[in-house]
Structure prediction request, 439 residues.
Amino acid sequence: MKSLVLCLHVSLFLIGWRSGLAQVGRSSFEKPDVYEFAETVEYKPRYQHDPKKKRRILNPDFYCSRCAKEGRIAARTRDDLKEKLEIVKTYPMEFQGRTSDRRGLYRLMDHPADYVLNWCADEVRSKNLIYIEDQMFRVVADLAGFSTKKVAYPRREEELIELADIFPRISKKTVQLNSHHHAHLYLIRSHRILRDMSGLIRHDPKAREMAFLGPFFGMKEKFEVYLFRKQRDCGKFVEKFLGHPPSLDGICWHTLSDDSMCAVSHVQLAKRDVDINNLFTHRLSYCMLIGWRGYQYDLPAWFTMGLAHLFERRERTDFNTFLLGEGRRPNLRIPSKWKPYVKKRIAKGNIPPLVQVCKETDVGKIPIGDRMIVWSQVSYLVSLGNEKASRFIQTLKSKKKGENLYNLQVRAFRRAYGLSIPVFEEQWKAWVKATYPSV
Ligand SMILES: [Zn+2]
Prediction:
């Protein structure tokens, strides 16, 4: 096995009360398994700009601290856009004594947002620190600018077209993006993940099971994304707001009072924009799967991890994020090429049986060398068609009262694929043998 020995990034990754270490590492570039989860829709510009002052957007559907400061949006404070950013969720019948709730309140990390943002301004002390909120996401970013030409990225042109709708000076040919553009890019990318996850799951906001859930993909509050440029700031942040050690690099957190999912990372070791995008895609897709239809119980770790790797590796395959479990130090051997590695493991008969692995909910209990296995298993599962994959995920999110996680998955495999878990595993092995390269 050709391995790269890497120790780039050690962080704690948390969901609810559970924690873990994580790392990122570089591998060789392999052709990604690209699955179309959602229909590609051509972006239609939606912002009207003031004819006399081109930079000013007359109909903003987002608040951005920098846009407000520069007079780019017709709002001075976030509350000037309150009516667009907050919504009233109405229930079909009285629920917990109410027929509706106001959601999308100006909150971050279970606190009033201004309190958190003022703390960040005082502690991070960066001129690049920007807060952006729209109808689904809140992004806190402290990012540098970058050159769009440095690394080829297939989505670059479509992203520039979207950015150009906000910034009239940007075009498909723009080379240099500044920190403000970069922050907006992460709101655009958050929506891309939402689109893909919605397409994969076949999320229907009008479905019966969504009627009493929160309006944000089933969460009561919006998804929060934090991208700190320096580890130090990220560490201080998790210490201040969650009471975790400042040595950490990131956290994925479910806020207990507000019911939001927060993806907190620093990007100090993700040198290129495409690396930051990979790390961000891994974490946010993970949060979205956990948060969809509400965070009510732990999902099987093989599937949540495998899907997060799949989302990340649809972007690029040469930079990978590994989320590890509580108290474990990372095993630093990461295969350079994932497909030949998985194929060799199967040839050696060195595959942990899925009937055992599927019982695990703690991501840390899946060794780092088995991440490629679960990524490949999820990739095969998705390759069998979106309709089946969505049925599988919808079943995983519909645990019956008293049903254990194993029986839930037996039911999900049977309902979606008409297969038992061992038969699925044998079919996956045959698929790998037939389609993966040996070197
Ligand atoms: Zn802005």
Remarks:
- Confidence is low (pLDDT under 50) at residues 1-21.
- The two ends are 10 Å apart (CA to CA).
- The first strand starts at residue 3 and ends at 5.
- The chain has one domain: 3-435.
